[in-house]
Amino acid sequence: MQNSGGSTSIQQGYLDRQFHLSEQHTTVKTEILAGLTTFVSMAYILFVNPSILGAAGMNKGAVFTATAVSAIIGCWLMAFLANYPIAIAPGLGDNAFFTYSVVLAMGIPWQKAMAGVFVASILFTILSFLKVREIVIDAIPQDLKLAMAAGIGIFIAFVGLQGGGLVVSSKTSLVAIGSFTVPTTWLTIFGIFVIGILMAKKVPGSIFIGLVATALLGLVTGLIKAPTHFISLAPSLKPTFGVGITHLSSMADPQMWAVVLIFLLVAFFDTAGTLIGLAQQAGIMKNNRMPRIGQALMADSLSMLAGSVMGTTPTAAYVESSAGIAVGGRTGLSALTTGVLFVLSLFFSPLLTVVTNQVTAPALIIVGVMMMSSLKDIQWDHFEVALPAFLVVIGMPLTYNISYGIAFGFLTYPILMTVAGRRKEVNYITWILLFVFIVLLYVLNVLPKGTTA
């Protein structure tokens, strides 16, 4: 027993030194719980990504494995390079653009489109290595950073409301309240109340407990179908591995460079906005800067490059990491745990079918509430700041795109600040970003529109 206790102490000591747990006022137990919560909240991508890319003609089994492996690489790089509780996996917006706009609308075969993703990944990594992304993020005004955090909060709450069936599409008003005659909607309602009550009582791990309780209720009532088996081997990567590299000759087509530009810009600002929002939530920001931002961006870039080789669309920092942060995650041990669970998911994929949209929806909604606190620090009494911040906040959920919300802020902030006589407070990078977003919005509206996901 003494040897066992001594071994445990040594392991905990190593983890403390590696991830600076004491410095961040957290524990091994809390970080593992946070990593588990983040994984449960984002595990849907293992099934959604193959479904979307499958519509482009890609092998769903191979995409499933590529999704998991790229998430493992991303999470572990984030853990050891940046020591942040932020998970990385293929992004939803990028895969929808890949399938519905590039492959289906523009008629580009998925093999050629994947070559575009590979080239964008290389450029992305170079920009990170040269610290261009780090310089840009540090230059973003504090008020816009706070607005990004709140905007992401509303965005993920909206995703939760949709996934849980509480908000549905409407031809007359775009959105409407869901039907309470749908049994699974009540799972979401149940989860919201369970997590809300536990949060109000300040019970540790409230979000994760709520997720488990909701899943169990779904299984008991038959609203969630129990898996028929528990273990399966991971599908082969052969159908998609290296396809982008073997089709690099397609880059001779000028149309492909427009595709590369969009993948590059959208991935750049999606991750930037998400990292800032999560850092604000976790209390990581110091003097309007995110420590070790360069390492975090490098982890994101390398995982994107690895994913493009294996056969999946660009990876991104996941807003669902906010669920783990809300549980108490503050270090890379949380991200490491999430990565380990993605490894297990390769062999226990049937179990993940239990984690439906209705199970994860309550967590996303509650976390959205928590992320709204950043609004209190925005200078609302200065209209030149208030309008750009407001456009960022509402732009993300109403366009269903984090990058669009950020664009609205940068298209107005430098102009209004100048008119208000505060031009000296606007750095040159902010002006550059104004023109970058003009180009981005122009290109996005010139390219053919695909079917929405």
Automatic annotation (TrEMBL):
InterPro entries per UniProt: Azg-like (IPR045018), Azg-like_bact_archaea (IPR026033), NCS2 (IPR006043)
GO molecular function, one term: purine nucleobase transmembrane transporter activity
Location, primary (coarse class): membrane
GO cellular component: plasma membrane
TM spans (from-to): 32-49, 61-82, 113-132, 144-168, 174-200, 207-226, 256-278, 331-352, 359-375, 387-416, 428-447
Keywords: Cell membrane, Membrane, Transmembrane, Transmembrane helix, Transport
Entry membrane topology: Multi-pass membrane protein
Subcellular location: Cell membrane
Entry's family note: Belongs to the nucleobase:cation symporter-2 (NCS2) (TC 2.A.40) family. Azg-like subfamily.
Protein name: Xanthine/uracil/vitamin C permease
